Amino acid sequence: MKDIAPGLLDKIQKDFAEALAKSPVAKRLDDLIEKGLATHSDSLKYAQEVGDILRKVFSKHLTADALPDGRMYYNIAKRILEPTLTSEHHLVANMAARVQEVLNTNAGLGLKGIKPPPDEWRIKGIVDRLAVEEDFNKIKWILDEPIRNFAQHVVDETVRVNADFHFESGMSPTITRTVVSETCDWCDKLAGVYKYKDVKETGNPVFMRHERCDCLVEYDPGDGKKVNAHSKKAAGSAEDIAWQKQAAKKREERRAEEAEWNKRAEAVAKAAAERRAKK
Ligand SMILES: [Zn+2]
């Protein structure tokens, strides 16, 4: 029997790379990172794009007709899914780590963004699940939405490992979870701000993501910074510095105005004294 895995893998990797190279979402994130404006909301959009491109490429090439006996045998699943999901991981992890570095820099920290390792357990789970099913048509759903979910999870993991790194460096990171488009009670209840110290290794669901969940899980080291009580901006932030410059300018103008009034008052007083002296 002809080994179809190498040929299928080639086609998938080629189509995946081509679609990604044309993606406006990927281009936009690159620009935002260069300008220092990216946040993890952009990482999440990028992950969704990468996941959506890959699931479309899978659905084009991985069909029951293309597989022997209409089944995804283990050795085919492993040789196709391991390399493609691993590159999906690295693409998203690279971008999310670059975004984290932007956030670190903006918060005045000279810390590099770090990348989580590929989730081998998750990849193995998908391969095993495909292989046990005799009829590919009954399991092909796993190459659809879960592929997007896989990419989103890479952003969550990047957020988690960077918060952990900062926590170990003596900072007090907070994790923010926000509902984006869905209306599910579980996610509604989970939305909020958490101290990383409290959710570290407690099995806290703040980093969990159910099927079709597009919640945003973020860590921005700038969020935990002291706020300037007068400017209401993070102390030392660009906004705070701009506010302080503005305030200094106003003080300067007021002092000049006061000096002007004092001079006039002096002149008036002097003139009055002279008038009195003449009488
Ligand atoms: Zn959700």
Low-confidence stretches: none
Domains (count) = 2
Record the strand order, biggest sheet.
Answer: 2-1-3
The total beta strand count reads 3
Name the average pLDDT. 88
Q: SS-based structural class?
A: mainly alpha
Determine the strand fraction and express it as a percent band. under 5%
How many DSSP helices?
A: 10
Gyration radius from CA atoms, angstroms: 29 Å
Biggest beta sheet attributes: 3 strands, antiparallel
Q: Name the helicity range.
A: 55-70%
Ends apart, CA distance between termini: 126 Å
- The ordered H/E elements are HHHHHHHEHEHEH
Bound molecules: zinc ion
Shape: elongated
Tell me what you see in this structure.
By secondary structure, the protein is mainly α. It has 2 domains: 165 residues, no CATH class; 54 residues, no CATH class. It has a 3-stranded antiparallel sheet with strand order 2-1-3. Helix 1 runs antiparallel to helix 3, helix 1 runs parallel beside helix 4 and helix 4 packs antiparallel against helix 5. It starts with a helix and ends with a helix. The structure holds zinc ion (ZN). Zinc ion binds next to loops.
